[in-house]
Design goal:
Keywords: Disulfide bond, Membrane, Oxidoreductase, Redox-active center, Signal, Transmembrane, Transmembrane helix
InterPro entries: DSBA-like_thioredoxin_dom, ScsC_N, Thioredoxin-like_sf, Thioredoxin_domain
GO molecular function: oxidoreductase activity
Region (Disordered): 81-105
Structural class: alpha+beta
Pfam families: DSBA, ScsC_N
Shape: elongated
Distance between the termini: 32 Å
Number of strands: 5
CATH class of the largest domain: Alpha Beta
CATH architecture of the largest domain: 3-Layer(aba) Sandwich
Largest sheet: 5 strands, mixed
Helix content: 55-70%
Number of helices: 12
CATH topology of the largest domain: Glutaredoxin
Number of domains: 2
CATH superfamily of the largest domain: Glutaredoxin
Length: 264
């Protein structure tokens, strides 16, 4: 690992040398010195061709330089994207953790906040729901913020609206986990059945699903996800760290413990 890192640092100097020569040649070609005759004006072009040949011959003899350069470029691009995401999470902390339109479960005064973006029709989200519920109850000091993020079609949107409507009746958590345990059916009849099972007034729920307040909450979640470059579900923000994809219970507990340690 150390050797690979060392090589990645040293190789670009060779690349830089030869590519610098190429750039010098190109500049000479692009901005030729005024000449007295045609033979002098043609010289920069010949110089560029000569430098290009040197660089080409070098790369043909050492193709691993290109591979290492591309690897280094990708590493730097990834690091820059990660830094951008960290900044986006920090800049949007209030929207992530304290948006009044986002339902909350667990300990409302918990010392670690777990934010989840999810879709009810996403099988990985349903798997993560059990993990999150178990970790939340076992820990006892975690505050969970739910970000409805329906991206798998109109049925997903209906499920999200139903859940937010259940929140207006104080039944979000029960409705959410009940719906997550189902196979992904978001039909009106199915949503009514889930509502009745957990004590939600289904008629009132259906009326509230049409409200502008709920539509606005979903629009805000889409906009926030865009700012954080979240394009899939599930995605978690745990203690300020963006975690894309499903996590198992052990990983969830580790991430919560790390967030708690970093905050102390």
């Amino acid at each position: 690992m150390f050797l690979e890192s060392t090589r990645a640092v040293r190789r670009p100097s060779a690349i830089g040398l030869h590519l610098s020569l190429l750039m010098i040649g190109i500049m000479l070609y692009a901005f030729p010195v005024k000449a007295q005759d045609q033979s002098t004006a043609a010289a920069p072009s010949a110089e560029v061709e000569n430098i290009e040949k040197i660089v080409r011959d070098y790369l043909l003899r050492n193709p691993e330089v290109l591979v290492e350069a591309l690897t280094l470029y990708e590493q730097r691009r990834t690091e820059a994207e990660e830094q951008r995401r960290l900044s986006a999470v920090s800049d949007n902390k209030e929207r992530l953790e304290n948006d009044p339109a986002s339902p909350v479960a667990g300990n409302p005064d918990g010392d670690v906040v777990v934010v989840e973006f999810f879709d009810y029709r996403c099988p990985y989200c349903r798997r993560s729901a059990d993990t999150l519920e178990t970790a939340m109850k076992a820990d006892g000091n975690v505050r969970v913020v739910f970000k409805e993020f329906p991206i798998l079609g109109p049925e997903s949107v209906e499920g999200a609206k139903a859940a937010l409507a259940a929140e207006k009746q104080g039944k979000y958590e029960a409705f959410h986990f009940a719906l997550m345990r189902e196979p992904g059916d978001m039909s009106a009849a199915h949503l009514r059945r889930i509502a009745e099972e957990v004590g939600v007034d289904a008629d009132l729920m259906e009326r509230d699903m049409k409200s502008e307040e709920i539509n606005a909450a979903l629009r805000n979640n889409y906009a926030l996800a865009e700012e954080l470059s979240i394009r899939g579900t599930p995605a978690f923000v745990i203690g300020g760290t963006l975690v894309p994809g499903a996590v198992n219970l052990e990983e969830m507990e580790r991430l919560i413990a790390e967030a708690r340690a970093n905050a102390s």
